[in-house]
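To whoever is on call:

I kicked off a structure prediction for a single chain this morning and the downstream step that reads the tokens threw a length-mismatch warning. I double-checked the sequence; it's 232 residues and nothing unusual in it as far as I can see. Pasting both halves so you can look.
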Amino acid sequence: MRRTRTQLIAAAGLIAAGVWAPQAATASPSGGALPPQLVLEIFVADDELVPYDVLAVALNVTVVDPVADGFLTVYPCDEAEPNTSNLNYRAGTTIPNAVIARVDYDGYVCVATSAATDVIVDVAGYFPFDSPLTPLDSPERILDTRNGIGAPVARVLGGNTLEFQVGGRLSTPADASAAVINVTAVNAGAAGFATVYPCGQPLPNASNLNFTAGQTVPALVIARLGVGARCA
């Protein structure tokens, strides 16, 4: 039997901000804002729109008017909070991103934020247990050009292509045909766009992520893996 927890927000539709207003969040933008380091447990598998035995959910997560620069992470509540992010934001902005997250045994996902902010969560769909998707217990960072994870420490110049290994890294099997990747442009030097595509294929005439100068913007990408299970 599933354990009982306080149901904080509904499982589908446009969701209002979290319901807590603890004293620690004195600078919160509203009475329902998430204070720093708060983990909000969200009940999603209510068996009305999302079944109890769901494997993972597709969410749209939006931060609204955060009090400081920060990041937000979505993960199954039966796992430790990962050292990665699904969404990065600047103070006073409104930033959305799509998230595919594994649901824990009791039907919950957790949302953690590093700065006080209002949070909106929409459920767009779900993946049943017989889905070919293999959700990880928590996000794993495979590339960070700021500190040399998966590539040399260097900013990616406009017009250049950066190849990085996906299959065979960490929990991703070497024979994976595609991957769900969260891609973030950090402190862009000018307005532009980024495209994720399988290595060995022509560069497509489309973008996955658009940004302006100085902006930090995330985007969820589902990409087929190319030669050597790599993306570019």
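Update from on-call: the warning came from a stale cache, not from the record. Cleared it. Sanity check on the structure: The longest strand covers residues 118-127.
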